[in-house]
Amino acid sequence: MKIFENHPLRTLNTFGIEAYARYFAEPASVAELRGVLKDPRFNQARNMILGGGSNLLFTQTKLDYLVLKNNITGIEKVKEDADFVYIRAGAGENWHGLVMHCIGKGYGGIENLSLIPGNVGAGPMQNIGAYGVEFKEVFHELEALHIAEDHIERFNAAQCRFGYRESVFKREARGWYVITSVTLRLRKKPVFNTAYGAIAKELEVMGATELSVASISQAVCNIRRSKLPDPAVIGNAGSFFKNPEVSAETFALLQTGFLGIVGYPLDNGRVKLAAGWLIEQAGWKGRTLGDAGVHKLQALVLVNYGKATGKEIFELSQQVLDSVLEKFGVRLEREVNIV
Questions:
Q1: Rounded distance, CA 303 to CA 272, Å?
Q2: Which one of 6, 195, 207, 215 is most buried, counting C-beta atoms within 10 A?
Q3: Highest-pLDDT range among 144-148, 172-176, 206-210
Q4: Hey, CA dihedral for 98, 103, 108, 114, is it positive or negative?
Q5: Residue 106: pLDDT above 90?
Q6: Domains of the chain (ranges, CATH numbers)
Q7: Is the pLDDT of residue 127 over 90?
């Protein structure tokens, strides 16, 4: 496996930010991954694992890291029972490619997660979610390499400690592991989820007379393409901010001051606010600061219109955070990982 020095990363992050890694490698197997991590040349270098680069913002031009692009691929059925099939995929597999593979087999559970950018390893890392479905609902287990101890560990759902766009790998165990494979539990007889967002309406527009994992996936893809910019055309990382949670009492107070505020009751008695609505009402939708901007169709998305630096996009995000806090008293959090 070749090791590169001062390697450009602009094409490896969906924001298209100019950055360079001190060292760079693309391990395509667990053996190659272990080999480069044990190489004494890199003992003093910090490690950074790169997947699809779709949930990442580089704020430094020169990264003093050993950047490893996880290229461990492969999809296989490992077992099945009367109701479920268990599919294991390498962490370097493209997520949407895995979704399409499973849809082609008629397996249900991840059709609502169609067209989410990035690789499979980001699924448990971020507990990705969209249109009423979260990754944790289809998760069975994963394997990860413990970097310091050089052994593979298995994690079940409880051990992953999934939260809203969170997991143990983003919190307590951040930087300790490299996820190498993920196993999903999918339904042989799908249970369809069309209640969230505009899926049902889009299915009507499509003229879908019979529900299927394929038709729901297509509806989700149509909706996403109509609202979200294509990173191949305009640099972005999808949703930049998390939807904040507030108490029911706080939401009631906000309703008295801001007619039309969007909130979704949660099982824990709290209310999830629509961050995009808050940002739009604060006046940011469609605004730009140089080549950094808030997308004109979806205020959750920050974009690079050309030559914005990571620092400029970060500064824009901070101004959005400050503005929403001042107007609503609600503190937003960034969903994107900042490096």
A1: 24
A2: 215
A3: 144-148
A4: positive
A5: yes
A6: 4-69 (3.30.43.10), 75-187 (3.30.465.10), 235-338 (3.90.78.10)
A7: yes
Distance from C-alpha of 335 to C-alpha of 55, rounded to nearest angstrom: 8
Two structure tokens written together for 196: 């969230």
Q: Which residues are catalytic?
A: 165, 239, 335
Q: How far apart are CA 115 and CA 320, in angstroms?
A: 26
Tell me which residue of 201, 212, 135, 199 sits closest to 167, measured CA to CA: 135
Q: What confidence tens digit (pLDDT) does each residue in 138-149 have?
A: 999 999 999 999
At residue 197 the predicted structure's pLDDT band, cuts being 50, 70 and 90, is low
Q: What is the largest CA-CA distance in the chain?
A: 62
Alpha helix stretches (DSSP H) within the chain: 30-38, 95-105, 122-126, 157-160, 199-206, 213-227, 248-257, 275-281, 310-328
- Spacing of C-alpha 62 from chain mean position: 24
The whole-chain average pLDDT of the chain stands at: 94
